[in-house]
Structures are given as structure tokens and as C-alpha cells.
Design the sequence.
């Protein structure tokens, strides 16, 4: 069990790390869509969702003591 994460098993930590990787990929895709989109409103929506997902991802990474991903 990692320090600072009482009650989380090694398997759960592995699952959280996998989830954080998926979230990181999603953030990257949303940023790409925002840059490629020709509709300014849709681009802004993608940017907003990307920022929201990044914030959630960083909070979860901090909670389980995993280095934040860029």
C-alpha cells in the first residue's frame, strides 16, 4: 500500500494510474480539437472541457501521490 493513500490497494493504484493516463490522452485530444476547430464557440467548449479534465486529473494525482502528468 503506497504511503499517503490509506485503504488503497496496489491493484487500485494501478487502475488509478491507468485512468489518469486515459484522462491525459483525452486532455491532449481535446486541446488538439480546440486548435483544429474552425468554429470559435466549439473551440472554446473543447478548451473548457480540457481544462476541467486537467483540473480533475491533477487533483486525483495529488490525492494518490502520483506525479502529475502534462
Sequence:
Amino acid at each position: 500500500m503506497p504511503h499517503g493513500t490509506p485503504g488503497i490497494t496496489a491493484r487500485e493504484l494501478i487502475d488509478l494510474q491507468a485512468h489518469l493516463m486515459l484522462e491525459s490522452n483525452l486532455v491532449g485530444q481535446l486541446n488538439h480539437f480546440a486548435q483544429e476547430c474552425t468554429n470559435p464557440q466549439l473551440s472554446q467548449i473543447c478548451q473548457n472541457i480540457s481544462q476541467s479534465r486537467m483540473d480533475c486529473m491533477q487533483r486525483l494525482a495529488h490525492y494518490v501521490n502520483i506525479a502529475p502528468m502534462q
Summary: The longest helix spans residues 10-36. The helical segments are 10-36, 40-63. The mean pLDDT is 86.
